[in-house]
Every structure is written in C-alpha cells, then in structure tokens.
Amino acid sequence: MKNRLLLTLLSTLCLSACSQNITRIENELFPVTGKKYQNIYPGTYQGRGPHHAYDDVDFLLPTEKKTVEPGMISFAHSGIDKTFGFEYEKLLSPTAEINSRNAGHITWLGHASFLIQKTNGDAFVTDPVFGEFDGYGWVGSKVIDDLNRLGDAPIKADQLDFVTAIMVSHNHYDHLNSETLNRFNGNTALYLPLDTADDVNYQQGPITEMGWYTQTKHNNTDLHFLPANHTSSHGAFDTDESLWGSWLMNDGKHTVYFAGDTGYSPIFKDIQQQVGDIDVCLMPIVAYPRGARKMHMSPEDAVQAALDLGCKVFIPWGYGTWALGFEHVNEPLRRLARAVQDMKPHFIVKTLLVGEGVNYAELLNTSN
Q1: What are the distances in angstroms from CA 29 to CA 119, 169, 197, 214?
Q2: Among 220, 218, 28, residue whose Cα is nearest residue 121
Q3: Which of 299, 296, 226 is nearest to 265 (CA)?
Q4: Which of 87, 93, 268, 314 is in Cβ range 3.0-4.6 Å of 353 for a Cys bridge?
Q5: C-beta neighbour count of 340 within 10 angstroms
Q6: Across-strand partners of 24?
C-alpha cells in the first residue's frame, strides 16, 4: 500500500459548489480515459448464465410463489412476484438500541446503510438512504413499484447527531440520497468517489472526493477508498462519468471494510495484497441473476470475495429493503446459508436484522 501511495497525486481543489470546499484526492495510476471510468478487471461472470449450480436451485417455499405478467414499464422483471410471502416487519429488530456510547459496534440500518462506531469514538455511516429515492429516482418510483421501499428505515438522520462522517460508495439512487444527507448534523464530513459531488446538493459539511487506493484521515481513523467492480450513473447520459468503489476504516486496532455494490473479480485479491487481512467485511448479496452478475455478487460470490480479503467477520447486506434484483427477496439469505454450509469458510458469519447491532470488537476478541 505504501509503494502505491507514494505514487498517489494528492491535489486539493477549492471549488465553489453550494458554498462548499471540495478536497480532491487522486491517484495518478488510475486516470480517467475518455471522460469515462473503467473497472480494473472485467467481471468474472459475463452474460446471463447460469454461472453456478445454485442458479438452478429453487430456494422458495410454495407459499412464496406467485407468477406475474410484466407491466408496461418494469424493472428487473423475472416473472414472479418478488415480495410475495415477504413480511418486512419480521426483518426489523425488536430491540434496536442506537446511541453514541456503542463503541466497537456496527448497526445495520437497511440495504447498504450501516452505522459504524469505532472503538476510538469515531462514528461513520455508509450509503445512507432513509427514505424513497430522490431526483430522477423519485420519478421512476412513481411508475415502477420495484423502486419503492418495502418498509421504513429504523432511524432518521437527525437522530445520528454523534456521527461525524459519511462515506458513499457510488451515485446510484439506492446509495446516494441528498435529502437524507442534508438531515445529518452540521459539520458532518462527506466522503465521495471522484466526480460525485455534482450529484449532491450537500450543505452540512466539507466534501472530499477520492480515487482508488487513496487514503485520508478522519479524526483518529484512516479512511481508504478502494476499488469495486461496478458502474455509476445519476442521470440519463452520465454512465461511468463518476467513480465507484469500496471503503476501509482503520482505527489502528480493527479494520472494517464496506464493499459497496460490486461484482466478483480478482480485485479482492488485489485489495488484500495492498491492505492485508481485514477484520470485518460488510458484503452485498443481492441483485445477482442474469446479466447483473458482472456487477453484483451472489451470496457464494460474496463468501469467496471475503475469503480473498482474509476477512474474520462477514456481515451480509442488501436484502429486504428494495426488490431491485431479479431474485425473490427471501432468496439471498437462504442461498447464503447454503453457500456457508458448502464452502465452510473460516470466518464468522453474522446476519443482522434491520436496526440490529453487533459488538464487533468483542466478537473479534472472543474469536482469537
């Protein structure tokens, strides 16, 4: 990591955008070519598949099967009602307790949103979207049911007044939401991939844009922005004009990795070679069938990626907040359980309810 960082070009551009100063941290090893960003590796799984034996396994109960015809406008139509038999209330934690004293805790807030409270007192949130999509995404949700939330978020942004930084993985509407961001406390720092600031109207604090394999320090925690295998777009004609990626938080005692949306590729082995084994990995396990597999991971892909990363604790996410993929919302966790049973990974798998937290510091200490 040090050798690569020595080649990193750090440039601070004081830009006037919504009265905010934007700090830009670039890596000269990954320049933009033709105004478009590209993945370091192509996705391992190209085409529609099947790509794995699990693709032909029926993970649904008879009471969850309902055939539906495609609408005039559909999103990821698979011929089934993807939420039939799903009850969002059962996904909510009955004992959610979120407060500033939970040092060494990770709390799942739904989809890709996590509250990460480091043992040094720093508190972060990833990809906060606590309401419906905004912007063009809101327009789409009026005609496509799949773009509407299946249930309310367990908390509001203004209840997280102890959070001092937000990290966003990319600009898709289920990961970037200006309305949610601007409800955080004033002076909350916002960390974004390169060229993403134009997609937000952020008023609450300083903005830092980062390139792959760059790092900065937030209070007492080192933040690394790392690659992913995905794409970006926030409008009709801006595909791949902003970067996407993953985040690593290192407080000197524990490392926590948030993968963002990503497909499986050799990139995870590259990341491990640069930063070493990782203590806690927050991994996506949804929206993987058909052609989406090159930029989203199936549960077994996520397990393999975590093995590549040298993870000690694996926490899945993505299930149950939206029905954005082709699969039924009840499938990913069952497919993950099958993958863990068959692959027998050496790490701890901790599945959370929405609003549920885990003391990861204690979990790591007891597993050593």
Answers
A1: 33, 20, 22, 11
A2: 220
A3: 296
A4: 93
A5: 17
A6: 11, 209
Domain limits, the chain: 73-367
Mean per-residue pLDDT for 186-201?
Answer: 96
Type of residue numbered 120: N
The residue type of 183 is R
Q: Which CATH architecture has domain 73-367?
A: 4-Layer Sandwich (3.60)
* Nearest in space to 286 (alpha carbons), one of 244, 321, 313, 310: 321
What length is written for the chain?
Answer: 368
Task: List, for residues 332-354, the tens digit of each pLDDT value.
Answer: 999 999 999 999 999 999 999 99
Q: Which two tokens stand for residue 50?
A: 């099947």
Give the contacts of 13 (CB within 8 A, at least 6 positions apart).
22, 23, 24
- With CA atoms as reference, report the closest residue to 308 among 279, 271, 269, 339: 269
Helix axes 299-309, 267-275, angle to 10 degrees: 30
Structure confidence by residue, pLDDT tens digits, 25-36: 999 998 887 789
**Res 17: pLDDT:** 40
Gap between the Cα atoms of 14 and 92, Å rounded? 43
The phi-psi region of residue 127 (left if phi > 0; otherwise alpha if psi is between -120 and 50; otherwise beta) is left
pTM over 0.70: yes
Core vs surface per residue 85-102: b (16+ CB within 10 A) or e: ebebeebbeeebebeeeb
Backbone angles phi, psi at 174, to 5 degrees: -85, 5
Residue 240 has pLDDT above 50, yes or no: yes
Q: Which two tokens stand for residue 77?
A: 């139509």
Q: Which tokens is 332 given?
A: 């990913």
- Which tokens in the block code for residue 3? 């050798």
> Bigger pLDDT: 275 or 137?
275
